[in-house]
Amino acid sequence: MKPPRRFSPLARWGAGVGLVVAAWGVIAVTPDDHFADHVFVEHAHLDTAVDGRDIRITLLDFEKAQSVQDAHGWHADGTWVVATFEAEALTNEKESNLQRIELHIGDRTYTPSDRPDERTTPLGHLAVGIPATMTAAFEIDADDAAEHATLEIAYDKIGRVLDSEIDYDADLAKLRAVPSAKIADRKWSE
Amino acid sequence: MRSGDAATDDAAKPALEQKRAPAPKWVRSAAKALPATWVTTGALVLFLGVTALFGGLAAAPPVKHHIAQLAPGKALDTGQLEVTVRRAVLIDELPGSGTVPDDGERVLVVTATMKNLTDAPVQSGVFADEQITVDGLPAQRVNGRDEVASVARVDDATLSPDIQPGLAVDVAFTWPVPADLLHADDTIDVHLSKLTWFEPKFLSDEAPFWTTPTIKAADMRLAIDDVGAGADQEAAG
Fold it and tell me: Does the pTM of the predicted model rise above 0.95?
């Protein structure tokens, strides 16, 4: 019987090293575990509509306030960052729930205030072609009042799978500060 | 490494055996004189001896479940929140607190300040029942329903408020209690527990989070202030 064919040591070492390099290559191009969490970020500017996959946001106002008040007589002092914006869905109303509205300052994540009793919280269903005006009032730690902040608006809070996210960056130190900001009731635009 | 030359393979085996140097004489005589069990036993005794030398065989210190006895107004750091329980109040009813007493019931109120020590909002209503408990409350209400604690902001009665990072919020925990269960100047034993920081590790890319089970963290005895119908109540209505 013919002895099995042997490769030269050089060929065997070459193949071994080649496989290691190939394995490294596979690892290098494999998306990380959080791949599906990545979002397509669209940067917003004041008074300019910005479109995502199925979302259109027009940031109308972004201000700092020492006090906020709603349309029903409630008011609260504190350190507030108030974002007023129009939001509408573009193509599909089925999953157009505005679930993720966050203000990121450093490592901290703030969500819109649920005071008083969620009357002002700007969550809800967006309609196609009918912009809704809403206000997100963030009550923040006074220590964060001069930091850089990023407002993030997107649909899905949990899944956030490869969807659009509307971002707005602001330096809170340079932000216009008003003594009192109004949280208007959420309404559909005329 | 073996030679890659196929022609030498068959001859290699005996050649290798012959090449092996014979063990020194003292090794062979030692191996004969010393049974293998002695070697393993000796190694074990040596290992244990060295371990004992460094205190490895000493009794393990008891696991400390330190439960602090807190005075009212003293803060408890749970890692997630700084909780400062202030006082206990008995009142006929407290609209906006989330607890609506039935006939024959009153409302037990425990006020506290909760400060969020983390970088994300804390939903005060989730796990509220596990994080603060009062001894001696019936499991069932007068109307047969389960006893449920509510938590609300003192200033504007927001139910189960979110506590934003770095912020402190005055809240009122409330329970419906049978009207004759507690009286002025009675004391109640309040137990505070903290949540567990759960970090998924194995095959999981989930972010860590605070969850149950809770760990008992502090006990507290509060005297009850009976404010009757509560005309001068402090909590929001």
Answer: no
